[in-house]
Amino acid sequence: MVELAREASYEVSARDGEAIKKAGARLTPGTRISVTWMPADNDDDRVSAARQLRDAGLEPVPHIAARMLKDEHHLDRLLGRLSAEAGVGQLLVISGDVKQAVGPFESSSDLIASSAFRKPMLHTIWVGGYPEGHPTIDDETLRAVLDRKIATIGELGMTPGVITQFCFDAEPILQWMKAFRERHDGVAVRVGLAGPAGIRTLLRYAAICGVGASAKALITRGASIARLLSEAAPDPVIRDLAETPTYGELQPVGFHLFPFGGLDRTVRWMEVVAAGRFKLHSSASGFQVLE
């Protein structure tokens, strides 16, 4: 658990310069920080955030949203700026949460196939994984599309990786990971976790992102119920994954934190875990951090 906490990656919004500044002061140099793609942000915001992360000694991993790109030239220009101005070598490609594409790209697969991705500095491309499924895509299609993306990235001479949707229960993660490892032995997976936040906030994001099934775990972990009435942290999932008998077979695996309660709050919480300052619950459900 200490090792997983030390190697965790995080997310930040492009305009949250103060959060980036605080993260740079606390996190280990080289820690991966994804820069989310929000419709209200522009390319200057995205490049600026990536450059600030780089200057802080962190590794920027900007999101590139397919359906929000105007055309091939827009993609080529943005990737060129990210590489030249912020030394970006890693990207997370997503479809983008809009029904109608503004340009020719309908999916992250379209992005990966674009000639714009043949940038010399690009070496790692992350794609999304869905342990709890997708609200509009069946599981068989999800698996096939993910496999094709990984194969294409490898054919381009780059390293593929997967960052999953956030989950509140280890069981769907373990089932998904077992099936994934049968197909992809050495591809890195970052399991998405929601950072510590209020229950209402977490349930709201769970509904938006389609992870309602595991969200039930927020209110059914017996030993934690009193604490969860006000807020929740990802300690049950961290402990369950770390203690699973097949943990060694899941490698390489790490955690990716979605900081719905704020990046600084999430980083501080994980910092305590990384220092080993926590006490296991006797119920075998999570642990208590000793701040």
Automatic annotation (TrEMBL):
Its cofactor is FAD. Pathway: Amino-acid biosynthesis; L-methionine biosynthesis via de novo pathway; One-carbon metabolism; tetrahydrofolate interconversion. InterPro entries: FAD-linked_oxidoreductase-like, Mehydrof_redctse-like. One of its GO terms (cellular component) is cytosol. One of its GO terms (biological process) is methionine biosynthetic process. It catalyses: (6S)-5-methyl-5,6,7,8-tetrahydrofolate + NAD(+) = (6R)-5,10-methylene-5,6,7,8-tetrahydrofolate + NADH + H(+). One of its GO terms (molecular function) is methylenetetrahydrofolate reductase (NADH) activity. Keywords: FAD, Flavoprotein, Oxidoreductase. Pfam families: MTHFR. Belongs to the methylenetetrahydrofolate reductase family. This is Methylenetetrahydrofolate reductase.
